[in-house]
Amino acid sequence: MALTGIQIYKHLPRTNCKDCGFPTCLAFAMKLAQKQAPVDKCPHISDDAKAVLAEESAPPIRKVIIGTSDKKVTIGEETVLFRHEKTFVHPPAITLQVEDTLGADKLAEKIKQVQAVCFERVGQNLRAGLIMVKNSSADKDKFIQAINTVKANSDLPLILAGKNAANLEAGLEILSKERPLIHAAAADNYEAMATLAKKYQCPLAVSSAEVLEKLAELAEKVAGLGVKDIVLEPVAASLGAGLSQLTQIRRAALKKSAKGLGYPVMVCAAADTDDPIQEALCAGVYVMRYASIIVLKAAEDWQLLPLLTLTQNIYTDPQKPLQVEENVYKIG
To answer: Is the peptide bond between 184 and the residue preceding it cis, with omega within 30 degrees of 0?
Structure first.
């Protein structure tokens, strides 16, 4: 059971020094109880107390990092259902899916097209966040060739997707220091996938098309095998079903502290359509409710530009509106 603010307060120095940014230790304790502040904000707390409170003050949705470079993607750590309550924290990563059945030339062309979409808006550089390389051929050599082609043409972090653990491991050996997301553990292979995630210290996606209780059980099994960085993928038959599932997951994590659902979520925007316009519309809905990774099969320029702009608008602090720096700008 989570500690109350008063119980947390007993572990604090109780000096009301304000070094944490709050007026009193009790106010800080209340924020810790609400999971709206990290315990590290108090510079005077003892190591023993910090160990006790660290888990209690952790956000109800775990932070997961994909990649290791300056382009790494951080997801999770959300604390509210609605943006106006406080703010949404980490914007979703718009993700291009490519398959290893594409020829090397077509694959390189598609990657370069997405890589080129990078624009500045209100002082921020907006671009796609991840690339998913899918082992659709089930052939290890084709999978490795596709990974190498992507690496040669992009600096974005990767998701390695496939059902064959041996093929995925071959890809992980190439990316051993780059921390890709492994996709995906299912009911029939979660032990093998968890072994890979532990061996290569990579986050792992857990996927299920069954009810959310089954997805939560599967995530808890994977966590029990020692994998801490988990991404949930509820596979829905339609946009309406997907929206309902993502809402239920966020509510369960925030309101009920459901540990099996306290992870960021990924979705495929084109799960029930081959229409690129419908894909973009679905992705826009998932930007607002509540995906952390949104996979696109097309990822055309005209899809990415509005999605990245929408993401920027939703994932800014409502108490700190976007502003352009006052200056004289040259136009044309």
So the answer is: yes
